[in-house]
Write a structure and sequence with these properties.
With about 350 residues, this protein is an alpha/beta fold. The protein has two domains: about 5-70; about 100-350, Metallo-dependent phosphatases (Purple Acid Phosphatase, chain A, domain 2, 4-Layer Sandwich). About 30% of the residues lie in helices and about 20% in strands. It has helices spanning about 5-15, 20-30, 30-45, 75-100, 130-140, 170-180, 205-210, 250-260, 300-305, 340-350; strands at about 60, 65, 100-105, 110-115, 145-150, 185-190, 215-220, 220-225, 230-240, 265-270, 275-280, 285-290, 315-320, 335. The strands form three sheets. The protein has a six-stranded mixed sheet, with helices on one face. A hairpin with a 5-residue loop joins strand 8 and strand 9.
Length: about 350
């Protein structure tokens, strides 16, 4: 005959079974109800017995058979509520930290931001040589940082997956090109565009960007560049700012500046067009630069079919920031559409 289990043996069996009484009873070789009776006595002795999501119910009796009801297929409502509390606390921490992301610039003097328009690196109509040239420019120009407003690949999914039949690059090759492109330089920020977000929560670009230690945000990133001399310059980068106008292609960034935050640089992509406008904030006196950068996808069958005009000045835009000037100086930020010219100006400004 099997020896009677001690209280300590029962407690260990229940702990090993993660609180499930029936599993502990089977391990101890005793009936479920015997175990429940022992646990009840142990509680009166001061033992702390693990809670269980499953307590055997009354057997279901039929004329020819009986069975014990199955445990619930989910956690208890108490545990579920605690899970939601922890999830909300984590979500709140992330969202509050994302409202304005501080980036500390460690080098003295002026810097430049090269805002790459939509790369679409795997498309047949993409000027991949320009992508190669401009990433090289960032690497060899002191103080010049690369930025990406989104849509790194076409990432055709669902019914759009048929479009892989209209380009020479396969889906597998597209991800190889994305890894090659992102790995070519360091990125101050990267935005997930609508094509990137076709992948849902499993966006591969997020993991590729992580290997480059790049700040990667879905749809938008509002950044505070903090310079060694105490100057702060804010960048409001989105794949696209809401709002459009046939009369003003920079309407989206302008709307964001006039009705939302007051930042120095607003930049977006998405519609493969270049646009620029400038406003002064009458309260702080800062100059706000409102930009839309086009795309390295120069030849676009969809744009041709829909009759979209060629409004691209350049596939990118370059902003030069001089933190040595007063905060309200109108030339603290300058915009260049030819990145080589902007890089030359940055180099001259840093060396003068």
């Amino acid at each position: 005959m099997r020896a009677k289990a001690t209280d300590d043996q029962i407690l260990k069996a229940v702990q090993d079974a993660k609180g499930i009484r029936s599993a502990a009873a089977a391990k101890l070789g005793m009936a479920d109800r015997t175990l429940l009776a022992r646990l009840k006595k142990m509680k009166t002795k001061g033992y702390t017995v693990p809670r269980s999501t499953y307590q055997p119910g009354e057997p279901v009796e039929n004329a020819d058979y009986s069975f014990t009801p199955l445990p619930e297929d989910d956690v208890s409502i108490e545990e579920l509520v605690e899970q939601r509390k922890r999830k909300f606390a984590h979500k709140r921490e992330y969202e509050e930290a994302s409202k304005l992301i501080p980036i500390r610039i460690k080098i003295n003097g002026p810097i430049g931001l090269l805002h790459f328009g939509d790369p679409h690196v795997d498309d047949d109509g993409t000027d991949i040589e320009a992508l190669e040239r401009h990433t090289d420019l960032c690497n060899r120009t002191p103080g010049l940082f690369a930025c990406n407003v989104g849509d790194t690949t076409n990432n055709w999914v669902g019914r759009l997956a048929r479009l892989y039949g209209e380009q020479a690059t396969s889906a597998a090759q597209a991800w190889r090109l994305a890894e090659w492109f992102i790995g070519r330089c360091s990125w101050l920020y990267m935005i997930a565009g609508n094509h990137d977000l076709f992948s849902g929560s499993g966006d591969p670009i997020k993991w590729i960007a992580k290997q480059q230690n790049a700040l990667y945000k879905s749809s938008e990133a509002r950044i505070a560049l903090k310079f060694p001399n105490g100057r702060e310059v804010r960048v409001n980068a989105r794949h696209d700012h809401s709002g459009s106008s046939i009369w003003n292609p920079a309407h989206g960034p302008m709307k964001a500046a006039m009705l939302g935050t007051r930042d120095h640089i607003y930049v977006a992509g998405h519609k493969h067009e270049s646009a620029y406008s400038v406003l002064k904030d009458p309260i702080s006196g800062i100059t706000m630069h409102l930009m839309k950068v086009a795309s390295y996808k120069v030849y676009d069958r969809y744009a041709k079919e829909r009759g979209f005009r060629d409004n691209a000045l350049s596939p990118c835009g370059l902003t030069v920031i001089n933190p040595l000037l007063p905060a309200d100086h109108p030339d603290m930020v300058k915009v260049w559409w030819e990145p080589e010219e902007g890089a030359e100006y940055l180099t001259w400004l840093r060396n003068r």
